[in-house]
């Protein structure tokens, strides 16, 4: 094995292990966090980060082949659909009436619309 192969091997395993750690942390966060919104945030962020790192590591392991191209296509697909599905789930929860918990000092009132210059002066 040449020095370049060893470096690529070490980098690929670093990315694979890092991605796996992100996915496991997301799974633990999904179980441990108290409410729906925290769980959704933990799952979506760590899923995206873990997926990116895993795909990078697998691409380094595959080398410059057709497998790498396929992995990149899968990665782009997951990179687009993951946040989109998370947004759809969050929007559905919000529409059905599940509101995020209010922090201390927040009133929960809807913001007033902006007034343009000249409106309401008369």
UniProtKB/TrEMBL annotation:
Keywords, in A-Z order: Membrane, Transmembrane, Transmembrane helix
One term of GO molecular function: sodium:proton antiporter activity
Entry annotated with the keyword DNA-binding: no
Bilayer-crossing regions: 6-31, 52-80
The keyword Zinc belongs to this UniProt entry's keyword annotation: no
Residue ranges, annotated region (Disordered): 101-122
InterPro entries: PhaG_MnhG_YufB
Basic and acidic residues bias: start-end ranges: 112-122
Alphabetized Pfam families for the sequence: PhaG_MnhG_YufB
PANTHER family tied to this protein: ANTIPORTER SUBUNIT MNHG2-RELATED (PTHR34703)
NCBIfam families cross-referenced by the UniProt entry: CPA3_mnhG_phaG (TIGR01300)
Protein name (record): Sodium:proton antiporter
Species assigned in the record: Profundibacter amoris
